[in-house]
C-alpha cells in the first residue's frame, strides 16, 4: 500500500531554518503573467500569482508554504483588516522569500472588503486564513471569480455557513478549480498509512473511536484605549463563538475530522454530551467554553467519543484510537502509529511536514490539470464540530438532521461588518437552559 504521494521538497539546509523560524524558506522567482484555467491545463508551465487573505501567523505560514510548493510562484496581493498584521506578515515573508514577494503598495488591501480586492487583483490562487466566521463568504467569492483555493479549517461557525461552503465546493468542481482544505492531518504520511489500513479492513468492523484533544490555554490581547468593541473582538476573535465557533470548532475539529476520516466520512445519526466553562471565568475569555465531552452514534451502532479541554496546568493528550472486531489502531499524534490484534503493524515510513504537503499537492494539482476538491468532507467535518458545540451548549441529544438544518446564524452578514458595529455577544451557554435553534 502506498503511504503517501508527493515528497516534501525542503532541503536539509532549509530544515535548520524551519526549526528556528517555523516557516519554510523559499527559492527564487520568475515572471508572473496572469492566465486562466479551463478544459485544457493552461497552468502547466505558467507562473502562478498567489493572494493572501488574512495575514496572521497561520496566514504567514501558509503563504511561505505556498511559495515553497512550486518554483514558479509569487505572492502578488495581501489583504487584512489590520494594517499592522499585514505589514508584519509582509516583512517576515520578504525576509524568508526574498524576490518571490511581488506585493506592490497598490496590492496591499486593508479593511473588511480587502478579500474582494485581493480576489480582483489578478491572482490565480487565494489562501483563506482569516478567522473562521469569514470563510464561507470569502470562499464563495473566490470560487465565483474562478480562483483556486487553499481554505483553512474550520470552514464555518454555524450550519448556514456550512451550506454556503458546500454550494461553493460544488461550483468549484463544476469549474475545475482546486480546493484544498487546512485539515492538515489528512496530508500527514503516517496518518494516511494507518487510516488507509483501517479503511481497508485491517482491524475488522469498527466498533468504537475515541479522540482526545487536551491542551493548555490560548493567547490573549489586552484591550487598548483606542479600540472599539469590534476592534477588541477582532483582536481576540478566538474567544467569541460568532468569530471562532468556540474552541471545539476552531481547534479540536482536527480530532473530529480524523474520526470522520476513519469512519469513511459517514455521518453519525445522533450526538449527546456536555461542556462547560470551569477555568475561563474571566470576562476577557468572551463566551466560549473550556471543555467538551460528546458521544456520537452511527447508524450501524458504532460509537465515536470526543473529549477536549483547554485548561492550564493539565495533562496534554492528542490521540485517536479505533477499536474493531479484529484489532485496534492507536494514533498518538507525532509519536505512535500502531495496529494491534490480527494484523499487527507499526508505521516506520517517512515523516513529512503536513502543512507543506497540503500546498505541494495543491500546486501540483493546478500544474497537472487534475483538480483536488476537499470541499464536501471539509464542510461535513466542520459540521461535526458545530454539532458537538450545539450538544455541549444545550445539554440535549441532537440528531444529524436537526444539527445540519439548524437556522442559527451566529454573526452579522459579511457586508455588515464595520469598526463601530456593536454585535451583541450571546451570554455564556448553560446546558439545560440554552435552547437549540
Automatic annotation (TrEMBL):
This is Gfo/Idh/MocA family oxidoreductase. InterPro entries: Gfo/Idh/MocA-like_OxRdtase_N, Gfo/Idh/MocA_oxidrdct_glycsds, GFO_IDH_MocA-like_dom, NAD(P)-bd_dom_sf. Residues 198-329 form the GFO/IDH/MocA-like oxidoreductase domain. PANTHER family: BCDNA.GH03377, OXIDOREDUCTASE FAMILY PROTEIN. It comes from Arenibacter arenosicollis. It comes from the Bacteria. Residues 48-174 form the Gfo/Idh/MocA-like oxidoreductase N-terminal domain.
